[in-house]
Each structure stands twice: as structure tokens, then as C-alpha cells.
Amino acid sequence: MVAIHPFRALRYDPERAGELSRLIAPPYDVIGEAEQERLYQTSPHNIVRLTLGKQRPEDSEDDNRYSRARREYDGWRAQAILRQDETPACYLIEHTFQDAGLTRTRLGFLALLELSDAMERIAYRHEATFSAPKADRTKLLDAVPANLEPIFCVYPDRDGAIAALLKEQTRRSPPAADVPFNAEKVRLWLMTDPRLVEDIAHRLAPLTMLIADGHHRFEVAWAHRARYGSVMTYFVSMEDPGLAVRPIHRVIRPGGGSGVLETLQNLCAMERVPDLAALVRWLREEQGEGCFGIYDGRAFYRVQMKADQLARWLMSPSVPMALATLDVSLLHGLLLPSIDVDGPGIRYTPETSEATRMTEAEQGSLAWLLRGISLPQVYALASQGFSLPPKSTYFYPKVPSGLTIHPLA
Question: By CB neighbour count within 10 A (0-12 exposed, 13-18 middle, 19+ buried), where does 147 fall?
């Protein structure tokens, strides 16, 4: 059974730390170098200094991004820049954002997820992970004994009962925090009523969740479960209309040199389109298997696997048959190997415009645009024990870091 618990979070004291909008940040794994620098300049107390501290050429075993994060963390607690709430709570988060020109709102909450031995049966994982990020997050946890960022889980709530309970809380009292966050807005309430928390926990208990985001953080927490026992988690209903699942695009630098497009034409039908908007529109509307967009810095192409090549792949795929027709499986299992590309030669972004900019900045690279995988399909595959390739889904919007911290010591 799913077991959740309230906790006494560390939260910024605005009187000492400044405006919360200057202190929170996106999750560490979506922050690039330029964004990291901007966040550093925004405030000397921005959460990025803990979650993604800068590396320096002179870093040593005793003085590095992890040891500096610990010094910052200890200093902020000692100076009451971070204060611990007196009463255990679950933390309700309303996130308002723009999506395809529409204003949307998502409602979720933060609580501690108990890391029981039955976790494989109550929380499906859906993406394979990399060893380097897990090693990085392990070093950070060893240095800073705290959940600095939540993992992100979605749960089925078909009758909307949990959503109704959460919505009612937003009407009962003003939020404890109302924060502009880039072009978005985040509001936070403290749910301290034990009866309410117990009611939500009771309704969640028999459900089976999906780990939507934070797989590396989850696996690090799982590896340390005997010591800490729980992990700070953001929960949101799968039926929430403000829950969006986007694709993650690839920017690659082929090892085959010139002639890459000619090589791909042996496997795919390719047709030039006038611009990015036309390509995105086609990807959104096309229902066939094995459809992609390519941009080589000069022209946009819509790309579809040839029927005979798809059939040959399906006779002996390198992944389980349930995954074989997914675009991301075709890309990594068949197409990229044909042009001599492996993991280190791939960069990832959920933004099509960023993918094109990255391609134009590096001569010889290709932007490879993908279609999204629906949440019901992700859940169904995960429930059968299948793991998608890394970076297959992008749950949007991300939960800002710095709203709460769960101290482990």
C-alpha cells in the first residue's frame, strides 16, 4: 500500500532571504550553464547553490560543489534563512502556466512517500537511468542530508475524490506563498489538519502510482531507504487537466560525417517542409508509426520509417516487442546506430526552438524532433514492467525547487 506522511519542511524566511521568486529554481537536471549563472546572480540564497552548485577548476576532495552546498545549507539554517515549520504538514501547490496559448492550472501536493519493501508494486518506474546522475545525486545526499527537491509521482483518481479535497483547501484560506516563477505562478498552502491528511492518505493507499519525474533521485533515495525511510514527493492526479506530457527532442552529431541524410533515406521516406511550424504541425497530427522531424541547420524534413524497414525491425527488435514500435525505441535501436551515434553524442531538450538553436550553433549536427507518448500508454507499459529509454518523457511544468526542503538530520 502507498503510505504518505506529513513533514516539517524547511522553508525560506522572506524577511531574511528576500522574495521567494528570487530563491526558487527549476529542478537541477533542466538547468543549463547560462541558467545556472543567472540563478546565481539572482540571489546569494537561491536554491541552485544547493541543488546544482558551480564546479571550479581548483576543486579538490575537501572543497568542491558538494562541500560548498553543505556549508551553504548549514549557514542558511544557522542564520534562519531557512526555518523549519513547527507543525507537520502536507504542502498543497497550485501551478498556473501557459500551454499552447492557453492558461492552465495543475493542483498537487508534497508529502513524504514511505519507501517500503513493496515499492515495486506500488510505484511504477518508466524510464531507464544513467549511472553518472545517480553518482552525482548520491554525493550530494552524502554531503547535504536533506531532500532538496521532490520526486514527481502521478496517481489514478478517476472519481476525482482526492482532487476535490485539494481544491476545497484552496477556497478555505489564502495561500502561505504566492510566487511568480518565470512566466508562471505558484501558490502554496500548508495542510496541517490531521484528519484531512489522513483522509488523503487513506484514499491514496490502495492506488498504484507512476514515477513521472526524478527517477535518478528516486533510485538514490531507494538505495538509502534503510537509513532514511522516505523521500519528499510531489503527487498529482493523472486526470488533472493541467498535467502535460511532452516529448524530449535530441540534438546529435553523427559520426558518419557527410552523407548522413543519404544513409537515412535507405531506412526512411523524407520530405522537405517549409519551416518548423509546419513540421511541428505534421508531428502533432500524424498517427503512423516511426515518424520524426529532422533539421540539419539548413532545412526541415518530415521523416517516416519505410514499411519494409519497419517490418524487418519488428521481426527481431533489440527491445521488448511492447516497446518496439515507439518512436523513441526506433530512434535509439535502429536509426541512430545506422549513423554512428551513441549516448555521449546526444543532447536533450523539450523545446523545439532550443533544438534548432543548438543545431545552428554546431555545424554538422542534427535536431531530431519526436512526438510525445501519452500518459495512459506510459502507465500501461510501466505497469507491465517495461522501461522506456532515458529521456523519453517530459512532464510539464516542472515542480520548482526551493518551496520546501525535507531535512533528514
Answer: buried
Whether the model clears a pTM of 0.85, i.e. scores above it, the answer is yes
Looking at residue 338, what is its pLDDT? Answer: 85
d(CA 104, CA 181): 15
Contact predicate 215/127, CB 8 Å = yes
User: Cα–Cα distance between 260 and 302 in angstroms, integer?
Assistant: 15
Pairing outcome for strands 244-246 and 394-396: antiparallel
* pLDDT < 50 regions, the chain: none
- DSSP assignment of 192-212: --HHHHHHHHHHHTT--EEEE
Count of C-beta atoms within a 10 Å radius of residue 204: 21
Is cis: bond before 88, omega within 30 of 0?
no
Q: Are 144 and 50 in contact (CB under 8 A)?
A: yes
The span from the CA of 252 to the CA of 297, in Å, is: 12
**Do 199 and 4 form a contact (C-beta atoms < 8 A)?**
no
* Euclidean distance between CA atoms 230 and 406, whole angstroms: 10
pLDDT at 228: 96
C-alpha to C-alpha distance for 406 and 339, rounded to whole angstroms = 45
- Give the three cell numbers for residue 151: 520526486
Of 208, 219, 218, 211, the C-alpha closest to 125 is 211
